[in-house]
């Protein structure tokens, strides 16, 4: 008589948690630990995130602060989503502001120092495909002496009407690389990089702040967060 599958023994030691759940659990634990070690928590949002620039900022502030960018629900669970389950009194107020592109900034820095840091933080970089051009870039007909003759085939692939004239790359007609207010194409992004034109600025905006005796909302950051939500809807 064949054995019933119901009666097969299950070795619990062999069952493994999903990597995603383990990772989320670790983040929740790290946020809860940060709550105990820092005096203030801020929700922030951002424009044109650049991972390396953020990594540099983390390194710069590691003695006084910690930054978390994780899933919205993960961060909310760690803070608490209501007064009944919040980690500390009032912390759940931050959770409703964790929407869209937001993160948590834990710090022991004075409020004025944090506000100045976020206000002055600005890192320029090259625009990526799909981002909006902040100005119109137009190349005029004539020699493009900044490019070597080996670049001519690549420039043609980016849509530039070029040719070699006595070993010099020459634009045979005017060419609009990108137009202000319109999305940047993959070819335009490559061309802007070659031209050294940076159109992206990585910026940070404070949305709200919690401390044991205070809670504050920043109007500019909140307006920016709402504008981003409207653009994505």
UniProtKB/TrEMBL annotation:
Keywords annotated in UniProt: Cytoplasm, Nucleus, Ribosome biogenesis
GO MF assignments: RNA binding
Superkingdom of the organism of origin: Eukaryota
Function per UniProt: Component of the ribosome assembly machinery. Nuclear paralog of the ribosomal protein P0, it binds pre-60S subunits at an early stage of assembly in the nucleolus, and is replaced by P0 in cytoplasmic pre-60S subunits and mature 80S ribosomes.
Biological-process GO terms, alphabetical: nuclear-transcribed mRNA catabolic process; ribosomal large subunit assembly; rRNA processing
Coiled coil (residue ranges): none
Record field: compositional bias (Basic residues): 1-18
Species in which this protein is naturally found: Eleusine coracana subsp. coracana
InterPro entries referenced in this protein's UniProt entry, alphabetically: Mrt4 (IPR033867), Ribosomal_uL10 (IPR001790), Ribosomal_uL10-like_insert (IPR040637), Ribosomal_uL10-like_insert_sf (IPR043164), Ribosomal_uL10-like_sf (IPR043141), Ribosome_Assembly_uL10 (IPR051742)
Subcellular location: Cytoplasm; Nucleus, Nucleolus
Family named by the database record: Belongs to the universal ribosomal protein uL10 family.
UniProt region (Disordered), positions on chain: 1-21
Pfam families found in the cross-reference section: Ribosomal_L10 (PF00466), RL10P_insert (PF17777)
Protein's UniProt keywords contain Nucleus: yes
Record's protein name: Ribosome assembly factor mrt4
Subunit annotation: Associates with the pre-60S ribosomal particle.
